[in-house]
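Bumping my old thread because nobody answered last time. Still need a sequence for this structure:
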């Protein structure tokens, strides 16, 4: 098994899919997936594009380097977490993001998340420091 084949298998396992399920994502037969992971055949670009749209890091499969290298820390953590989810949970996350896009005033211009939160107020205890004996 060569590096490409090993990385392809790692990505399939990361998505928690068997060869039949993964081959269906790529639009090929299970036997083709077996050969790709064994290193006896190479997939074409159509297959790679299809598995990429299903969440496979094709850049990693091809080069051994994650495509998340260009992302900042928060983006990389979000992407890593997303990729670890099953298909149902990914669908829920995408629906949440789409719903957030429709909230009025939710554009980046109005995003206050980069600003520091206001300082916390201290609750009054009813006594003053100088009243202590």
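Sorry it took so long. Here it is:
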């Amino acid at each position: 098994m060569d590096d490409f084949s090993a990385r392809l298998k790692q990505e399939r396992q990361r998505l928690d899919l068997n060869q039949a399920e993964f081959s269906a994502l790529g639009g090929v037969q299970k036997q083709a997936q077996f050969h790709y992971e064994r290193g006896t055949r190479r997939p074409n670009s159509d297959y790679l594009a299809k598995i990429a749209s299903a969440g496979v890091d094709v850049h990693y499969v091809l080069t051994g380097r994650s495509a998340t290298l260009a992302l900042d820390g928060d983006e990389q953590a979000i992407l890593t977490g997303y990729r670890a989810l099953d298909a149902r949970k990914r669908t829920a996350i995408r629906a949440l993001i789409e719903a957030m896009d429709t909230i009025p005033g939710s554009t980046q211009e109005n995003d206050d998340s980069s600003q520091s939160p206001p300082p916390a107020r201290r609750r009054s205890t009813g006594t003053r420091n100088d009243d202590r004996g």
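Residues 3-67 form a domain with the 434 Repressor (Amino-terminal Domain) fold (CATH 1.10.260.40). Let me know if any region looks off to you.
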